[in-house]
Amino acid sequence: MWKGPWYVPELRVLDLTNNSLTGIIPPCVGNATKIMNFSLTGNRINGNIPTEIGNLSQLAFLFLTDNQLTGFIPTSLFNISSLLSVSLAFNSLSGPLLLDEGNIVSNLKFLSLSMNQIFGCVPSNICQLTELKVLSISYNKITGDIPRNIGCLSKLERFYIGYNRIKGTIPASLGNISTLHNLYCGNNRIVGQIPPELGKLSNLRQLSFGQNYNLIGQIPEAIFNISSLEMIYFNLNNLSGRIPATTGLHLPNLKELDLGVNQLEGEIPLFITNASKLELLSLAQNFLTGTIPTNLGNLRELQELLLHTNQLTNEPRENELRFFNSLADCRML
Length: 333
What we know:
Layout: E1 13-15, E2 37-39, E3 46-47, E4 61-63, E5 68-69, E6 85-87, E7 110-112, E8 119-121, E9 134-136, E10 141-143, E11 158-160, E12 182-184, E13 191-193, E14 206-208, E15 214-216, E16 231-233, E17 240-242, E18 256-258, E19 263-266, E20 280-282, E21 287-288, E22 304-306, H1 323-327
Parallel strand pairs: 1-2, 2-4, 3-5, 4-6, 6-7, 7-9, 8-10, 9-11, 11-12, 12-14, 13-15, 14-16, 16-18, 17-19, 18-20, 19-21, 20-22
């Protein structure tokens, strides 16, 4: 069993990443008050995270990813003002995300708790983590709504909350986080319409609300004008109306577009054939009509094309499927 070098008073860095250490983190961890970087990632450490870890007043980086830790996340952790980065992903931690609704004293920039057993709601006081750039809490048992005031995390760049049990609607305040690059909220139980405010996220690269099953209404046109977007996932919902087809839609960086298994109707918009970096196009299981564009060959990077289970037809008075001639240029298909 690993006992740890907590008797070294001037210890600043302890990095034991990727070994075969077993045992628990002992409460005497709190004696190493000068430690700034503490990593046990990739071991077999079990037991709880001791509350005494809150005594590490100079701690900046805590990495305990990929172990066998259980129990609650200590409240004291979020009151270490020097703490910048915490990763506790790939464990079996349980309990709520934050233990109470009190004040948080933290300059935390990176928080990863994905792949645990964390339950309860996302508390509104998470917005006190005003320096947060990455919030990753996917693959847990989190319930309730995304807080209406989530937009107060004005520096957030990556927000991963997929594979939980989140209900409620998409907060319009997400559109205020102009720094957002990745917004992943797939595989939840979110309902209602997609707020048009998401179209203000001019730096967005990944937008995923797939497999929520109960999103309704139309996809806001403004989303298809976010030129930085690389991935759009709204598959497996109950969206209706037409795919926006306004001229001027420009998606030069789009690689993956999945709108499959919805109630979308109308024709396949021609702007899609201008997204020259597209690798995945799925519009399957909708109510699309009209013909398949004959210039799909513009999509030279295309690897997957899924148009099945729609109401698409041949070109009028044409005996052959002309779009196949164009697909011959899609060498990656």
